[in-house]
Amino acid sequence: NGDAANPACSGIEGVLDAYHRSLRSVQLYGPTNFAPVVNHVARSAAEVLDGSQYFVLLIITDGVISDMAQTKEAIVNVS
């Protein structure tokens, strides 16, 4: 949602709103390393043990992922 201190979105509408806002403000350039982001989101998700929340990680890229092997490994490990 653009707020690093409180990144939660409320429902699908909140996710879509955050996505649309990010389209206006994000510039894509390299290097692009996703593994740290995947692992960060996974740590946040692991803290919610009661199933009351779900997590969506939307990855937008210009097509060049600098740490492809690490990103694949991170996605497999956290899934």
UniProtKB/TrEMBL annotation:
Pfam families assigned to the protein according to its UniProt record, in alphabetical order: Copine (PF07002)
Which InterPro entries does this entry report, sorted A to Z?
Answer: Copine, Copine_C, vWFA_dom_sf
Origin: domain of life: Eukaryota
Q: Name one GO molecular function term.
A: calcium-dependent phospholipid binding
> Which intervals hold domain Copine C-terminal?
1-79
List the GO terms this entry assigns under cellular component, sorted alphabetically: plasma membrane
Which GO terms fall under biological process for this protein?
A: cellular response to calcium ion
Protein name, UniProt field: CPNE8 protein
Please name the source species.
Answer: Centropus unirufus
